[in-house]
UniProtKB/TrEMBL annotation:
It comes from Rhodococcus hoagii (strain 103S). It comes from the Bacteria. This is DUF222 domain-containing protein. Residues 309-364, 390-469 are annotated as: Disordered. InterPro entries: DUF222 (IPR003870). Residues 390-407 have a biased composition (Basic and acidic residues). Residues 321-335 have a biased composition (Acidic residues).
């Protein structure tokens, strides 16, 4: 048997497997719809006239059983209900394996607002078109059939769809996808503006068409009137284009390990709202960024101060006293009665606790030298400590820190895993109060926020830094 004959047999087998897959997909969707109808009937019977959120139990269970998202499970359930109640011909073709899930979903989506009479008139033509067209072309064909058969319903569907216009951004691997769902005329007008902006460079520009369109889109968002040409020719006809205003720096938050920032390691950084980013991108963004150091301190004063039982399970109450004057380099320890801590008479040389700092048990380590240097002002920075509250959930698989201001009000919060993947939404935190740089330290980290001065250097023991380009 020749290669051509073997390939022909493989194509026949591929088509047969595709039909079997489509038939099983139809059975899965119909079963999800049956479960949804059963849950709807049960919820309506239990709630009476209140039908809000009915059927959500079935959607959640389908999502759990299939291991898919809630949105995908909702699509399965909606399509299954529609196939049972409104689309008998589509259901038969789907069960026979002639239609796949994508085309069945397209039929359901495009005919959702049609009256039963119009749908019964058009379904046969829609199914015959679905056997020959891809999903996108099928959607256009269905809309054309609806406009010809019932223009009023087509206009009504358009008005309903226009109310769902939206804009969103989501991560796609190392990139971001910016999606805008607009009306038909708005979409065409926006595309023309982007193309016109991309044409403001000469023909010798080094960028490809798609890169030019992306740059043009960003330039429009910044209110610019032209793109800078990259041909690097002195006689470029576009070099004298309209002057462009300076772009506003974006406000993004990046969490990166200091060793990675210095090029010593290659740990991933974290971009708030996107996810992990590569070290090279983090270093590039750090070149022109505002630094806010997040110093990781190892502190354990629970045994000496006796405050674990009183404050471990509750956030700070904001009853600390007013800040005291700047302490001497080696202050004498004094008990602080205002924050509920108590000193042990048998240890007269222990340092006082910083007001509002929650500490936890653990092995003790020597005090880091950069922390004491920061207290003495040796690194030219003012370290500002915020009240910290650590939460451990019942499962013990996730923990985080929540910053609170010293007056009891909640500051913007950030949750950190043990692995260090962190999203911190920080503003300037209140000034620190009290002493405590000479105390023993724990291996369990507490996050302490600080702002580096103009001439300051980043401490070598810092676990991470938030960069605001």
């Amino acid at each position: 048997m020749g290669d051509v004959a073997r390939d022909a047999l493989r194509f026949v087998e591929l088509s047969g497997l595709a039909r079997i897959e489509n038939a099983h997909a139809a059975r899965k969707v119909l079963l999800a719809g049956e479960l949804t109808l059963s849950a709807l009937e049960r919820d309506v019977a239990l709630r009476g006239g209140d039908i809000r959120d009915c059927g959500n139990e079935a959607i959640a269970e389908v999502s759990t059983r299939l291991g898919c998202s809630h949105t995908m499970a909702s699509h399965f359930c909606d399509l299954g209900v529609d196939l049972r109640l409104r689309l008998p011909l589509t259901c038969a073709a789907f069960l026979a394996g002639d239609l796949d899930y994508a085309r069945a979903w397209r039929i359901h989506r495009e005919t959702a607002g049609l009256s039963p009479e119009t749908l019964a008139l058009l379904e046969d033509d829609i199914v015959r078109s679905a056997l020959q067209l891809a999903p996108a072309a099928l959607g256009r064909e269905i809309r054309e059939l609806i406009v010809r058969a019932s223009p009023d319903e087509a206009a009504s569907d358009r008005e309903v769809a226009e109310a769902e216009c939206r804009v969103r951004v989501r991560p796609v691997g190392p990139l971001s996808e910016f999606t805008a769902i607009l009306t038909a005329e708005q979409g065409q007008a926006a595309w023309q503006l982007v193309c016109e902006m991309a044409d403001t460079v000469c023909r010798q520009d080094r960028r490809g068409r798609q890169i030019l369109l992306v740059d043009a889109f960003v330039a429009l968002l910044h209110g610019e009137s032209a793109l800078p040409c990259t041909c690097e020719k002195s006689d470029c006809p576009k070099v004298a284009a309209a002057s462009m205003p300076s772009r506003r720096k974006p406000l993004v938050q990046i969490t990166v390990d200091v060793a990675t920032l210095l090029g010593l390691t290659a740990s991933p950084a974290y971009l708030d709202g996107h996810g992990p980013i590569d070290p090279a991108l983090a270093q590039m963004l750090a070149e022109d960024a505002t630094w806010r150091a997040m110093l990781t301190e190892m502190v354990d004063l629970a045994t000496e101060l006796g405050v674990v039982a009183a404050q471990r399970d509750k956030p700070p109450t904001g009853t600390e006293p007013e800040p005291e004057p700047e302490p001497e380099p080696e202050p004498e320890p004094e008990p602080d009665a205002g924050n509920g801590s108590r000193a042990d008479d048998s240890t007269p040389h222990q340092p006082p606790r910083r007001p509002g700092l929650h500490v936890f048990p653990g092995p003790r380590l020597p005090a880091p030298r950069w922390w004491c240097a920061a207290q003495a002002g040796a690194i030219g920075s003012e370290v500002r400590a915020a009240t910290v509250w650590r939460r451990q959930d019942d499962r013990g698989d996730r923990q985080g820190t929540r910053r609170r201001s010293c007056d009891g009000s909640r500051a913007p919060t950030g949750w950190a895993r043990r692995t260090g993947d962190t999203t911190r939404r920080g503003a300037a935190v209140p000034p620190r109060r009290g002493d405590g740089c000479n105390g023993p330290h724990s291996r369990r980290p507490l996050q302490v926020s600080g702002m580096l001065g103009a001439g300051g250097t980043l401490p070598t023991r810092s676990r991470g830094a938030v960069l605001t380009p």
